[in-house]
Every structure is written in C-alpha cells, then in structure tokens.
Write a structure and sequence with these properties.
The chain is of the alpha/beta class and 749 residues long. The chain has 24 helices and 21 strands.
Length: 749
C-alpha cells in the first residue's frame, strides 16, 4: 500500500473512533483532500492507483455533505478503494511469478484454467481485508487480539477478587501504593469505579505537524525518527524524540523517564496528545501523553479523564488501573434500574454510564452518564429515607389528647395574630400529634416567618397532656433567644390555663451543681420544656416522659443527632424546622422521611430586604451608606469570615477588622465585637449592648448566623461573601429587616 494511502486509512480509522463527526482532521477531510491528492499522485506508479486517488479526492470533498447516518458506509467504501490497488498489484505480481516458473519448467500436461486460477489464488498472498466498520482488518485484528489477550489477562487478574476486595489484590499494588491510594479514599476495588474524573482534556483534534500552533491542545500521529537521552544541569534525565508525519518534524521531551529511550524505536508509530509548547523559537511537546498507534487509545486521541491525584501516583498509572477495573467490573455490575423505567427515562445502562463517565466517547455520552449516575445517587437517598419513614411509622407512639378548644384558648393569649400560613401548618401538626403514629414533620419557613411560635404551641399541647417537650438549637445564642421569647409567652398562656409552665435551658455553659440539679428535675418531670444545644443529647441527660422533640435549623444537625434526641423518649413526636429555602421537590427527596409543612407568608409589617453585590473597591461606598443609616437612628452588622488574621488567606478577620474600623472608619461610633471564642457571658453582654443601642455597629463572625433579633438593625455588610454558602448568606440576611424599616444586605466579594 502507498504510504499516503496508509496515512489516510489511519485518519479514517480515527474518524470512526470519533463518531464520524469530521473532526479527525483539523478543518475536516475536505481541507485535507487537495494536499493529500497531490502527495499521493507523486507517489503513484500505476494507472489504477491514479484512478483511485481521483475517486478518493472527490469522496473527501463530498464527506461534509454526507448524512450522519450514511457516513459509516461512506468511510468504509473509501477504505475499500484505498486497499483495492494493493490487492490488484499483489495478485498481478503473483501471476507473473507463476508464469515465469511455468516457462522454466519441463513441458507438462497443460492444466485447465480453473486449476490455474485455484492454484494462483492459493499461492498469492492475501491482501488486508476490510471489515464492515471501515478499518484495516489486519491492523484491527492485531489490536483486537491485543485487547482480547489483555482483557483475558485482566479477567484472570480480577477473577479471584470482589468489589470489596482490597486494592492489594490487584497485580503491582503493594502496601506502599495502597497507602498512597488511601489518601484518595481508594481502599477497595469498588472505590476505583467511584473515583470520578474532575475534568476531561479533549485530545480528539488530530492535526498534521506542519499546522500546529503554539499553546493549543492537540493530538498528532507521527513516526519515531530518533530518540536520545541526556542529563540536564539539575541532574534530570531528559529523553527527546523526533517524530515526523510526512509534513514536518517535531521534538517531544519527557523528564526522568530514562526507559523511554529504549521504548521509542525508529519507525515506531506513536499517538501524542498534549499542549504545543515553544523552545528557542521551535514548537515542541513537553511531557505529552503517548500511546502506540495500534493500541486501544486510553491516554491520547480522545476525551482523556483527569483524576484527583496525590504524591507518588501519576495520571497515567491511575488511568490504567481504573481502565482495567472499568473493563472488567462495569459489565458485571447489576443494574438495579428496571429496563422499562430506564427506557422511559431515556437513560443509559449502568455499565454504559460507568464506562462513559470514565472514558467518554464524546461530550454527549458524558452528559448522559452524569445524568444517570446523578439519578442513581438521588434514588439511593430517596430509598434510604423512605425506608426510615416506613420503619418510623411502624413504631407505636403516644397520641396527645387535645381538647377541642385548647388551641383557640392558646391563640387568644398571644399578643399577635397568626398568619394564614401559620394556622395551616399548626393544624397539620395538631392533627399529627393526635395519632398513635409518631409525627415526623419538616416545618419550612423564611427567617422571621413565625416558625418558633408554631412549635411552641405544639410543645404546650404535649405539656398539657402530661408530657415534656424539648427544643434543640445549634448555638447558645439561638437557644438563649428561644428561652427568653418562650418564657414570656408561656407566662401569658399559663394564666389562661390557671397553671405555670416550667422552662429551663441546658447548654455547655451550665456546669457543676447547677447542671446536676437541672438533670434531676428533668428526670423527675419537674421541667416541662427544655431549651438547649447539643448538651441535650448527651448520654447522661434523661427525661421522665418526652412527648415532643423540636430541632431548629435542622441543616446544622445530622441524622445521628436527630436520632439521639428521639431516643430520649418513647418514640416522641418529632418536628424539625429550617429557614433554608429548599424547593419542594428537593425537600421531598432529601427529607422523604418527613412530611412537609411550609409557612409561605410573612407577618404583617416585615419589610423586603434589598440585596446588593459590591466589589472590594466599592467598600468605601458601603461604609458611607452605613453611616447614613446610623444617622437615621439605625444599626448595622459587619460580618467577617475569620476570627483572627491568617497568613494563608486574604480574608478579613473580625478582631483586626473591628480594631481598624473603630480607629480609622467609624471612630465617632461605638463598635461591638462578637465571635465564637468568647465566653457565653461576654457574648451576652455584647449582644445586650447592641440590642439596647449602646453600640451602633456589631462586627462579628458567622456566630450571628442564627438567633439574633435586633429590629432596629437595617444593614448587613458581609465581607468575603464568596467564602460563605448560600444557606449561610440567606441566614445572615435574615438578621435585618425584622422591624418596620427598609433594610439592606451588602455582599462584598
């Protein structure tokens, strides 16, 4: 076969791998056609070869206009034409040789024509056969047999393993390498499958060397011309290979891989993928990915996965290990999604998803794989929470006895009217607690929507029926706020029912004799409602008869904390609250074990909060705006992401920022400082001073995320807003706008 024919065959084979998108050559095959035909004409020696060149030239120019569905057949026909001259030339040579032998031999009985043709066919070497996929069968057979033997070898490597087998069961992975893999959370074979790429490098763009441009990511096919090894000044081993593809030559250099000198032999065909660099005015490759052309491409010529790494593990080694695990195990994974459901959802099989997420054929296949695996994750979460829901609903709880007029009598004592949304959610809760199946409900409502008073009424119902109630808060500040607010309301409610309600607070600050006495009163049933932090769920805390458990800001607690609080009673009713604006469908997925109630209405008088994003250079504008608000009698929060200054980050710290602002910016005002390292008494003193307007600005860390109620505060300035999560920012913003004044949230990032 002519070298130009062979080169074009390889390019067409690459086109097949890329899905017939006309992307195997930069600019498409129509752009390649003129240069290829000119080079092929110079090499052609027979009329038949020249005829094929003209036909193929026309085919390449037509290729962009061929329908996608017809391109596989079209490419196959071109490959057949490229091999046809080789077949005729080979057959002609064999026939000539046979005729020469006949003339030199003694006269014999002349065989008939059929015998001659049969003998000629038997003696003539077989030309490469073209498969239906359009690739050279000889080359394909070599690759397939290599893949087959590699796969069989891989099968033998994995045959005695399971998905839960340690990685040391794999060949070449000893204890030292296992320790390195452990840093990537890869402990067993299954972890390889779940070690997903963090990005993908697109090395599908195949270009001739003479068309390469600086700083582009490309793939080339070249033949090794020469390879040499030398030592650099830094005592590094450099292996440099010169490759050519007939259009030009280029150097590729690898560092500290001396064995490559013997690996890259002259004439060897390589596929290189990487970024085109420049050295002394010449284009080069520096440490590109490489593979032999006849191998199944993993590191080059495709969308190449880039995995999270750690010291001592290279991309190429990890990619090879994952490829082996994927090849063997992906086809053995049970697909738990029924075929009819999968087809209805238009999703790939689990095997295909695992293969494509690691070694995608194209971006579309990758997106389909991501969609399937994301669906599986949510499905597993949903199945888990539904199982919890079933288990919880099979348990027997204690139904609360609620008199018909009890709720209305409680509502009459409140100094405000409940909104329609509050009444609706309260009715749902009251209906739940009167059932023998323990309530498990999520109460969702924006900051300031009145979730706490709804929870308090439910707790009063538990106490009136002879039980106890508890509310768990994430911080002491929020627990303190709940305690004080509930204490005032319980005094009014108690007067309506002719009794008092005992409410106490338990936090980490309650120690010694005070803590001991409180725990004794709780165990004897002398405390009706307990407000507290994580201290409530400690092992030595016991209730006499816990009927209702409430968790505030549930996103700050895990399943274990919820379970620990529930275990404090005999299957008590459970109410969890959140101000995080979770879409209903997502809430039903993540919290499928909970019934959902939503307070979607704000109390009258609450002002909408205007939110603005500012760049750091607009910080002085923010300070001027705060000063203007303070002149109107308002107050402001300034939030910093850190407590103290750190050399590792440029984020502003509360302590240093408080000092700077007090001395340089707001020197005529009083600034308070609040952070998590302060003792409870100090925090309380600072908060009281701010609430009583003895200080106009409070500089704080995220400790004010929840539990701060200062109606006079109208400005929230958040430094380094990009360092906080969306839920945190929403909580910060909820600290203002709690009065009747226009309020603002300024995000500096």
């Amino acid at each position: 076969m002519l070298s130009t024919f062979d080169k074009l065959s390889r390019m067409l084979t690459q086109e097949k791998r890329l899905g017939y998108k006309n992307k195997a050559i930069m600019g498409g095959f129509e752009k390649l056609a003129p240069n290829w035909s000119e080079e092929a004409r110079q090499e052609a020696s027979t009329e038949n070869e020249r005829r094929v060149i003209e036909e193929v030239f026309e085919d390449l120019q037509k290729y962009p206009d061929v329908d996608d569905a017809d391109r596989p057949t079209f490419v196959h026909q071109i490959l057949v034409k490229l091999h046809k001259p080789n077949k005729q030339s080979t057959s002609r040579t064999a026939n000539n040789k046979q005729n020469d032998n006949k003339e030199a031999s003694p006269p014999q009985n002349s065989p008939n024509k059929a015998e001659v043709e049969k003998k000629t066919e038997r003696q003539s070497p077989k030309p490469p056969r073209i498969s239906s996929s359009g690739s050279n069968t000889h080359r394909k057979t070599t690759r397939s047999s290599t893949d087959s033997s590699a796969r069989n070898g891989s099968d033998r490597d994995y045959a005695s393993t399971g998905l839960d087998s340690p990685v040391t069961k794999l060949p070449g992975i000893k204890d030292g390498m296992a320790r390195k893999l452990a840093k990537l959370d890869i402990f067993c074979i299954e972890d390889f499958l779940k070690h997903y790429p963090r990005r993908y490098d697109d090395y599908r763009a195949l270009k001739p060397i003479n068309q390469l441009e600086y700083n582009e990511d490309v793939t080339i096919i070249g033949q090794v011309w020469e390879t040499r090894k030398r030592q650099s000044r830094g005592n590094r081993t450099l292996v440099t290979t010169i490759l050519t593809d007939g259009t030009a030559t280029i150097e590729a250099t690898w560092f500290n891989q001396p064995w490559l000198e013997k690996t890259f032999k002259p004439g060897m065909e390589l596929v290189l993928s990487g970024r085109v660099e420049q050295y002394l005015g010449r284009l080069t490759f520096q440490a590109p990915e490489w593979e032999e052309l006849d191998k199944d491409l993993v590191h080059t010529g495709r969308l190449v996965p880039v995995y999270p790494l750690t010291q001592g593990i290279t991309s190429k080694w990890l990619r090879k290990q994952i490829r082996g695990v994927v090849n063997y195990w992906s086809r053995r994974l049970p697909d738990y999604l029924p075929d009819d459901s999968r087809e209805r959802l238009n999703m790939p099989t689990l095997e295909e998803a695992i293969r494509q997420i690691h070694f995608p054929d194209d971006w579309n296949k990758l997106e389909e794989a991501r969609r399937r695996l994301a669906f599986d994750e949510l499905l597993m979460i949903q199945l888990g929470v539904l199982r919890q829901r079933i288990e919880w609903r099979t348990q027997q709880g204690q139904a609360l006895q609620v008199a018909p007029d009890t709720v209305s009598r409680i509502l009459e004592t409140l100094p405000f009217q409940l909104t329609g949304a509050q009444r609706r959610t309260l009715d749902e809760i009251v209906a739940d607690v009167q059932l023998s199946v323990p309530m498990s409900r999520l109460l969702q409502g924006d900051v300031g929507s009145g979730k706490t008073v709804v929870a308090l009424i439910a707790m009063v119902l538990a106490v009136l029926d002879g039980g106890q109630a508890a509310i768990l808060a994430p911080t002491e500040i929020l627990a303190e706020q709940h305690y004080k607010g509930m204490e005032q309301l319980l005094e009014r409610i108690g007067q309506a029912f002719g009794r008092s309600f005992s409410i106490k607070m338990l936090t980490g600050s309650v120690t010694g004799a005070q803590r001991k006495d409180l725990l004794e009163e709780l165990a004897q049933g002398q405390i009706d409602i307990l407000v507290g932090t994580h201290a409530i769920i400690q092992g030595n805390v016991g209730f006499k008869d816990l009927r209702l458990a409430v968790i505030d800001e549930q996103h700050r607690f895990g399943v274990e904390q919820r379970s620990a609080l529930r275990d404090k009673g005999y299957n008590p009713h459970m109410l969890v609250m959140t101000a995080t604006p979770i879409p209903r469908t997502l809430a039903l997925t993540l919290y499928g074990d909970l019934d959902l109630s939503i307070i979607d209405e704000m109390p009258p008088g609450r002002q909408p909060i205007k939110t603005r994003w500012l760049t750091p250079r607009e910080r002085e504008r923010a300070y001027s705006f705060i000063k203007s608000q303070i002149k109107k009698g308002r107050q402001a929060f300034i939030i910093c992401p850190l407590v103290e200054e750190s050399e590792k980050t440029e984020a502003r710290s509360a302590i240093e920022e408080h000092e700077r602002l007090q001395k340089q910016v707001f020197f005529r005002l009083k600034l308070g400082l609040l952070h998590g390292r302060m003792k409870s008494a100090e925090k309380e003193k600072v908060m009281k001073a701010f609430k009583d307007q003895h200080s106009q600005i409070l500089v704080s860390t995220s400790v004010v995320e929840v539990g701060i109620d200062v109606p006079n505060a109208s400005v929230m300035l958040i430094e380094g807003a990009n360092r906080f999560g969306l839920a945190q920012l929403h909580q910060f913003r909820g600290r203002v706008g709690r009065g009747q004044h226009d309020s603002y949230c300024l995000l500096l990032a």
